[in-house]
């Protein structure tokens, strides 16, 4: 039973890393396909990916404190702010 408890965080970390890599590749492909350029429209995604990485590092290094929470809140606010630069799709069905 103790071995399962030790492996659970490792398995979740691996799943998170794999899903982040897959998600980043999908976002890059969709941006290229849509012809979207510029850094402003990508800042929302970048902030949300940094949020996931920050929380993963905080968990790995036992750094779940005020600084980690502050960075999380700041990245969430920045990610929400930069959504106004995401281009609106012209395709309506």
Q: What structural class do helix, strand and pairing data support?
A: mainly alpha
Counting DSSP H or I runs of 4 or more residues, the number of helices is 3
Radius of gyration over C-alpha positions, nearest whole angstrom = 17 Å
Low-confidence stretches: none
How far is it from the N-terminal to the C-terminal residue, by CA?
A: 53 Å
Q: Helicity, in percent?
A: over 70%
Main sheet specs: none
**Proportion of beta-strand residues:** under 5%
Give the averaged pLDDT, no decimals.
88
Can you tell me the overall shape?
flat
Question: Can you tell me the number of structural domains?
Answer: 1
Brief synopsis:
This protein is mostly helical. The protein is built from three helices and no strands. The chain has one domain (2-85).
Overview of this protein structure:
The chain has helices at 2-34, 43-60, 66-81. It has one domain (2-85). The protein is mainly α and 93 residues long. α1 packs antiparallel against α2 and α2 (43-60) runs antiparallel to α3.
């Amino acid at each position: 039973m103790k071995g399962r408890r030790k492996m659970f965080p490792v398995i979740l970390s691996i799943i998170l890393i794999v899903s982040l890599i897959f998600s980043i590749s999908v976002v890059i492909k969709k941006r290229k396909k849509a012809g979207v350029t510029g850094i402003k429209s990508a800042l929302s995604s970048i902030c949300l990916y940094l949020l996931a990485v920050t929380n993963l590092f905080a968990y790995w290094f036992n750094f779940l404190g005020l600084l980690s929470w502050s960075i999380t809140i700041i990245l969430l606010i920045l990610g929400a702010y930069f959504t106004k630069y995401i281009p609106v799709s012209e395709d309506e069905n």
